[in-house]
Amino acid sequence: MSEAALRRGRRRPEVEEPAAGMVELDPGLVIRRVSGAFAELFGTTPDDVIGTAFPGWFLPAVQETVRRQLGELVSGAEDRFEERLVGLGPGGGAFFVDVTGRILAADDGATCLVLLVQPVDAGEPAGVPERLADLDARILEGLAAGEPAVRIAMRLFLSRQAVDYRIGAMLRKLAVPNRAALVSKAYALGLLEPADWPPRVPSHARED
Question: What is the mean pLDDT of residues 111-126?
């Protein structure tokens, strides 16, 4: 997309926006320029997107991971960002996007963080290793909604240690390193419905 397309305001009516959106972030990960296509993905307008924190457009459970990884890109610890994330649309509806980002240098020597956000067709659930016990499904739904373990424990009348134990078992089952990755992989495997908010484990992924 041309530099002119990354701007605040209306898109040129004679140019059809591509499916992918683009955003430019400041070092604090606040959106300072955006394409109309990005705003449309999230059911809003460019003016409502500009000035907001980029991680806030994604599931609460993965926002901290997005902040950390993009921070590493800004600091120079990493040279590229590539992740499949779950965005939040109107009414809390969730959908998949592939996000890639790089630090680019402008003509004046300044640098900026530019991200390409490409919508993904989730398709049918595939590769689900097995169904989840009802208790694990309810814990996973809480994690995907951004609930801390202590709140999940209170809601389910469990101890914090019991919740942590079951989360650890799910981490090992899905071979992921942390809770944010657990949520992302659960969406990718069809263990969570991408179109539902609050997050929901579908019946085909629950034990009878």
Answer: 75
